[in-house]
Write a structure and sequence with these properties.
It contains 3 helices and 3 strands, in the order ααβββα. The protein is an alpha+beta fold. The protein has a 3-stranded antiparallel beta sheet, covered by helices on one side. The relative contact order is 0.14.
Length: 108
């Protein structure tokens, strides 16, 4: 196996502690060349929460939507923003919030 040490040395800004760390990484890679990575499939718990605040601002009556995406218990995506259009009811604002969260969920 051939390593490009010149790139690693220039990337480390030529300081001695960084160079020693790079050499240690190369040494560990050299010793683990015949090891395999084992991947076992498991179920992923993906949860999405969304909420809407209809006509919150008396100045412009726009609603605020927010969504939160979790993988297991870890937050991976979130957003909260004021909508461009005015919803005529709280139900429409909630449906818009659900549609926005669902579209983001499919992108994950």
């Amino acid at each position: 196996m051939v390593y490009n040490t010149t790139f690693a040395f220039s990337a480390c800004k030529k300081s001695l502690p960084h160079w020693i760390a790079v050499k240690r990484i190369y040494h560990n890679l050299k010793d683990s060349v015949y090891y395999d990575l084992l991947y076992t499939p498991f179920s992923i718990a993906l949860n999405a929460l969304c909420d809407s605040n209809w006509a919150e601002s008396p100045d412009n009556y726009r609603s605020t939507n927010g969504y939160w995406m979790f993988i297991h218990q870890n937050l991976v995506l979130h957003s909260a923003k004021k909508e461009v259009v005015v919803s005529k009811s709280s139900t429409k604002a909630e449906y818009h919030s659900i549609a926005l969260a669902t579209s983001k969920l499919y992108k994950i």
